[in-house]
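Cross-check.
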Amino acid sequence: MTQKGQHKLGKTLWAIADQLRGAMNADSFRDYMLSFLFLRYLSHNYEESAKKELGRDYPKSLSKDKGPDFVVPPPLEIWYQKNKDDIADFEKQMRKKVHYVIKPKHLWSNISEMARTQNGELLETLEEGFRYIENESFDDTFHGLFSEINLNSDKLGKTPKERNKKLCTIIQKIAEGIADFSTDTDTLGDAYEYLIGQFAAGSGKKAGEFYTPQQISTILSEIVTLDSQDPATGKKNKLNRVLDFACGSGSLLLNVRKRIKDNDGNIGKIYGQENNVTTYNLARMNMLLHGMKDTEFEIFHGDTLKNQWDVLNEMNPSKKTEFDAIVANPPFSLRWTPSDTMAEDFRFKGYGLAPKSAADFAFLLHGFHFLSNEGTMAIILPHGVLFRSGAEERIRTKLLKDNNIDTVIGLPSNLFYSTGIPVCILVLKKCKKEDDVLFINASEHFDKGKRQNSLDKKHIENIVQTYKYRKEAERYSRKVSMEEIEKNGYNLNISRYVSTAEDEVPVDLNEVNKSLTSINERIEKKTKEHNEFLKELGLKPI
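Predicted model, tokenized:
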């Protein structure tokens, strides 16, 4: 399907969501809508694989002309009824091939049929299906995946009957909305991304925290996929490991993967960490919806600052997990409470701790510790990290003296759903070739919107190309020597180095004086003429 068609499916599903959620706020309804879309994807994928596995033995679908209340069973249900002794072997094979199992009655084709016929057992069947997929489908991939979905919430209805009816309506509308579109992975995955963005836009600050707008995601992913030592040579062919330690819904990681795949390259494995359980579930669904196998990614639920993930907690430097690309959009200026022992933490040792009032540098140092010598890290942070004093100045100074800060990019304000403040992108490397810092001031380059500003293709390309070729342009970009940065007390405030202000036109005071004299003479002449007219009319002159 074309990109236009993919976008149309997203808009169709969003219109359904907007129509059906009623008084329910956007981020509450999001969890239902996206979970049903995910079940639809899992089911379709499973049924297509079952067709191939069973071949000619796969039953044909029954006709729907058996009355409005007749629930047409999925073909797989018919096969299960006729081949009870073969079910265990069949499911064993499916676990090998698609890495999960869904019982026929829990498949979307059955759930949507129950919704079409307003079946009173839909709620119970759906709840049972979610629990089965979470706990028995396959290993830990789906564990707790639907934990935030409360099918018995009063938001759906006050009684089980009302809730069942509401669910029937939602599912029926989604089924009808999808029916006219292609069911390939790219289409549903892109529709899912579109919906996440729309829900984030409609939910304000709270929901916006987990979503990096696609335009900014594209900039970061383009940067980290370019060759680290010489970006001008183009994209890398392979990234062994990619990390986002504050991954939200996973869109940044998927964007990095897309850039590499579009260049006919490949990625070993994607790693993400997320502290919010709802968003953690969204990220896992997002990975699978984009056609990733459970062996190709690992998403961990836990606190990044406490470093609770075993993968990143190896004390032996020789066994440390390192990443070729790191991207992140952590919470801005998060208050944190580091323990007394954290100063000796391998991530912060030698730099000191970020202040309790703002964990920005704690996040940055966490990621930077795991960056490989040939890797690139791009992180979104508030402008305060560029110039704040105290502990942050000490950390910034060490990173600069060690020649680890490669590029500072200033972005326009009001690009995010969670905040209107302007932010910057810091690009870091461990083996940097240049001994200067590239500053890009893109703060004035954007399309103004009613609620949100945005970057178009030209704006994004200009930032990426400027980084790629380390170009200098008046009032936009400049390479600044370490000597100049040192003279400025290691302050990285972008406007110190690249001002967007237009040069004032020189004023010739002699010319101004002549002009004023001429004007005064004309005023005096016209006043005399006016007074002569007043005298003729018998009126008092001015």
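The first helix runs from residue 3 to 20. The mean pLDDT is 88. Passed to J.P. for a second look.
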